[in-house]
Design a protein that fits this description.
302 residues, disordered N terminus, four-stranded antiparallel beta sheet, rod-shaped, five-stranded antiparallel beta sheet, coiled coil, alpha+beta, Immunoglobulin-like, 11 strands, 50% helix, membrane
């Protein structure tokens, strides 16, 4: 006899239960796929955003290094090596971030390296700034030293110039000066006697007479007296090998004697025999002692 209270048989109920389970499973799978897809999209967007941010950070750090390097500072070997290492890391990070797909693990590694690079840049800039200050200080000291040396050198040169001028004055003041300088022409007779003449045709030699002005600064010692003889045409009559220094230059002399100076009234003479024949006109002589002009005289021969 049929049970009227259960219009759906047991087999139908099992089918219904099975369909419900299938529907629930499908709904669950769809939900899982939906949320997974959503998560993947969000993760992809987040990964790309983080990659772009890291690329920008790397470029900023590279710009900072370029700025520091524009300063005119001589880098130490340590800073040069640190800069090379930083450039290598920057290049590696840029290459890593330029790939089409970047995993989360790669991003995490890049973030860690970037953090180290920021810290390194801070230390590098601090070292660079310190070095720049030290160089500025050393440059200021060098400039100050150069100025001091220049000043001292200028003072030394000025002092040397004054000393030279003073020595020149002292030397000039101590030089012998002649007065009563006179010049006479003589012929020599067969018996050796000298006879004064005024004609060029008979003259054989010139005799210079002079006294020396008393001078307490002059050294009481032997002094060389040089004479230069000029003919009527103004030509010096001298041997090319006879050289002395006077008035700051090398000169030729016609003759030279050595006298003993005692700061007294001694009279001196210099006899000069003309190696050539005398000609009509005026002969002039210049006397020198101690590197300065001592006196002069002239004579006209008929």
């Amino acid at each position: 006899m049929l049970d009227r209270k259960d219009p759906v048989n047991k087999g139908d109920r099992n089918k219904i239960y099975f369909l419900i389970v299938v529907i629930v499973a499908l709904l669950g799978t769809n939900a899982f796929l939906y949320f997974k897809d959503k998560y993947e999209k969000e993760r992809f967007v987040t990964t790309n955003t983080e990659k772009e941010r890291l690329k920008l950070e790397v470029e900023k750090i590279e710009v900072e290094f370029d700025k520091v390097n524009t300063m005119n500072v001589a880098l130490t070997e340590k800073l040069q090596n640190e800069q090379k290492l930083a450039r290598i890391k920057i290049s590696a990070l840029k290459q890593s971030l330029q790939k089409g797909q970047v995993t989360q693990a790669e991003l995490t590694t890049a973030q860690t390296e970037l953090k180290k690079l920021r810290a390194f840049l801070t230390d590098y800039k601090d070292d660079f700034t310190r070095l720049e200050k030290e160089n500025s200080f050393l440059k200021a000291e060098r400039d100050s030293l150069v100025r001091s040396v220049t000043t001292v050198s200028a003072k030394a040169n000025a002092l040397e110039k004054k000393n030279s001028e003073l020595n020149a004055k002292v030397k000039s003041g101590a030089a012998l000066k002649a007065f009563n300088v006179a010049l006479a022409a003589f012929k020599v007779k067969n018996n050796g006697k000298n006879v004064e003449v005024d004609k060029a045709s008979t003259a054989k030699k010139l005799v210079t007479y002079f006294n020396i002005i008393p001078n307490e600064l002059a050294t009481k010692d032997y002094h060389k007296i040089y004479i230069r003889v000029f003919d009527p045409s103004g030509n010096l009559i001298a041997d090319e090998q006879n050289m002395f220094e006077a008035e700051g230059q090398e000169m030729q002399y016609s003759d030279m004697i050595t006298i003993s100076y005692n700061n007294d009234a001694t009279a001196y003479t210099i006899e000069w025999v003309n190696p050539r024949a005398f000609v009509k006109g005026t002969y002039a002589i210049l006397l020198y002692a101690n590197g300065f002009t001592m006196g002069k005289a002239a004579i006209t021969l008929k």
